[in-house]
Amino acid sequence: MEWLFGLLVFICFYGYVGYPMLLAVITPFFTRYKDIPQTTNDGPTVSILVAAYNEEGYIATKIDSLLSQTYADEKFDVWVLNDGSNDGTADIVNGYNNPRIHLLDLPRGGKATALNAGVKASSNEIIVFSDADNEWTNDTLERLVSPFTISSVGAVSGHLSIRKNSSHLGLGDRLYRQYEAFIRKCETKLGNAVSADGGIFAIRRPLFDEIPQDVTDDFYISTGAIVKGKSLIYQGSALAYDDGVDKAKNQMRRRIRVTVRGMTSLSRRKQLFNPKNFGIYSLCLLSHKLIRRFVPFFGLLLLPVNIMLMNSGGIFQVMLFLQVIFYSIAILGLLDEGKRLPKLFSMAGFILLSSVGLGMGIVQFFRGTRFSFWSPEENR
Questions:
Q1: Are residues 45 and 9 located together in one domain of the fold?
Q2: CA angle, 339 as apex, 337 and 342 as ends, to 5°?
Q3: Which end of the chain is more exposed for a tag (fewer CB within 10 A), N or C?
Q4: What's the pLDDT score for residue 373?
């Protein structure tokens, strides 16, 4: 029983703490993509794709932020992919008298179908993907596409940040994204970030693979660069902002959906787990995307095993105490809608809620559940 306890502790620790610590130790000895270009005087042409379903409350702000970019106007256009919206989204887009703003009206077919149609309709060298409900800073596009001046770079991930005035769950989400940003930055120094941030990323057109309906589009699209021998890097200065998810039930729904789609994506890109072909990236993928997704199950087992061993020595009593403290802090963090408690409570609450969602998503994946459609409003 003690060996089982040790194994469970190791896996849980490695999934969330050990892997980032390992990256922090080894990446200073790697210099690949250490100095990533931030600006360019001769950047590529760009098509920005924005899938939209009932986004009348966000789409104007989105388009305005895209039109305010410092990147040369003649080098980019914007495609709003209207996925069968039944609100005023299309009317708002049509109200822009700008030849660089294109509206592609589509029947309701899901985000993957909309993005695939947008790629076929557009023609510029670099394809940028961004959600309708986030805003960019004025230099976001320039910072996002500048790394493409390096020939080995095939895809670039920006950074989606949660606004500081977000809810208590949004605060946890923001801290978690900072944690993810650190990991992606370290992975980039090894040669590849494991995947892109879904809110903002870009890829060279020849590297794009048509997106299946049931995958996470950010992972599937961005890893197409790695499959084809190019690098996927993280550019943390290419910023986008949104409000995060402020309701526990929506955060749970989102986490379940993302987990099911994420596991489906991994199954469709299973060749990436072969270290013979993809080297250290395969080990990073295993650590970042697979082991972590199973941590909730090991964590669920850890508590009863710990209880059974609590009379076997002081270390087991200390570990049980720490678990009780964590769950108590997490529950208080979930209840603290007024954000009166320290940030640690919000972070713990977010981790607990995300872990439960992860676990439920894994169960649904193995039960055969798949998600083809998305409704952004249900995940805010």
A1: no
A2: 135
A3: N
A4: 67
Q: What is the pLDDT of residues 309-340, one digit of tens each?
A: 888 878 889 999 999 999 999 888 888 776 68
pLDDT at 230 > cutoff 90: yes
Position 46, amino acid? V
Same domain, 189 and 63: yes
Q: Write the CATH number for 166.
A: 3.90.550.10
DSSP assignment of 24-84: HHHGGG--TTSS-----SSPPPEEEEEEESS-TTTHHHHHHHHHT-SS-GGGEEEEEEEES
pTM for the predicted model, two decimal places: 0.91
The whole-chain average pLDDT of the chain stands at 90
Looking at the domain assignment, is residue 261 inside a domain? no
pLDDT digits (tens, 9 = 90+) for 346-373: 778 888 888 888 889 999 999 988 877 6
Q: Which of 203, 233, 250 is the last residue of a domain?
A: 250
Whether 184 and 326 map to the same domain: the answer is no
Q: Which residue in 248, 233, 175 sits closest to 30, CA to CA?
A: 233
In a shared domain, residues 219 and 300: no
Q: Are 119 and 222 in contact (CB under 8 A)?
A: no
